[in-house]
Amino acid sequence: GEYSHRVQLGGHDELALLADEFDQLTGRLQTTEEVRRRFVSDASHELKTPLASIRLLTDSILQNEQMDAETAKEFVADIGEEAERLTRITEKLLTLTRMDTAPPVETEPVDVKYVVEKVEHMLSPLAQAVDVRLRCRLEEGCLVRATQDDLYQIAFNLMENAIKYNLPQGEVLVTLEGTGETVFLRVEDTGVGIPEEDLPKIFDRFYRVDKARSRAAGGTGLGLSIVRDTARQHGGTVTARHREGTQGTCFEVTFPRCRAKGVCRV
Ligand code: ADP
What we know:
It is found in: Membrane. GO terms for molecular function: phosphorelay sensor kinase activity. Keywords: Kinase, Membrane, Phosphoprotein, Transferase, Transmembrane, Transmembrane helix, Two-component regulatory system. The model has no long low-confidence stretch (mean pLDDT 88). The protein contains 7 helices and 7 strands, in the order ααβαββαββααββα. By secondary structure, the chain is α+β, with helices and mostly antiparallel strands. The site of adenosine-5'-diphosphate (ADP) has 23 residues, from helix 4 and helix 6.
C-alpha cells in the first residue's frame, strides 16, 4: 500500500528499535486509512439505497398516467419516509465524524440515574406502542465524568434497541449500579436475540443482523457504533452477550466511577 516503507535494519541498537517503532506506526496509519476508506464506501452505499427508492417511486408516478390519486399519494408518502431515512443516516454520520475531529468538550460529573430517567420518559410511548414493559432499577450517586448529552445518547440507543428488537409482551430491564471504582449500566431484554457469531460485529458501523427488521424499525446500523465510540471517549467500555435463560440480549456499559466533584476535576 501507500504506507509500505519497511526499514531494513539489524541488531538491537537504538536504530533498530526506532525502525521497529516506525514500522508499527506506518502499520497503524495503514489500518486507519483502510477503516476510513471502508467507512466512506459503506456510507455511500447506505445513502444510495434510499436514493434509489426515491428515484423509482418518482419514476413510477411520472410515467404512469393512469395512476389514481390515492396510489400517487401513497407513493409520495413513501418518498417522504425515504427522505426521513436519509436525514437519520446523515445526522448519525455527522455525529460520528464530529466525534473523530471535534476537540474534547467540557465534561462534568453526571449522575447517570437522572439521565436514564429522562430516556425512560422519552421512550415509554414507544414501549407502550409495541407492548414492551420498561423497568428501571437505578442506584443513586453513580457519578460519571462525561457530558449529559453523551450519556443520554448511550442510554437512549441501547434502550431504544432493547424495545425495537423485542417481542410483544416482552420486557426491558435497565440496571444502574456502582461497585468499587466502576459504574455499570446494563440494558437487558427478552427480545429476538443476537446470534453468537454476530455479537463481535454489532458495534461495527452499519452492521445489522437482520437488515429487514432494522429497516422496518427505522434503523441505520450506526447506533451501537456511536454507543461504543462515545463510551470510549469517556474511558468506558461496552459489551454485549446472550442473556442467560432467555433468548434476549444483555448490553453492559462500564465507566470509571467519579467519587466526588473535587476528585473528578483532572
Ligand atoms: P440499528 O439502527 O440497525 O438498530 P444499531 O447499531 O443500533 O443499528 O444495531 C446494530 C444491529 O444490532 C441491529 O440492526 C440489530 O440487528 C442488532 N441489535 C442491536 N440491539 C439489539 C437487541 N437489543 N436485540 C437484538 N438485536 C439487536
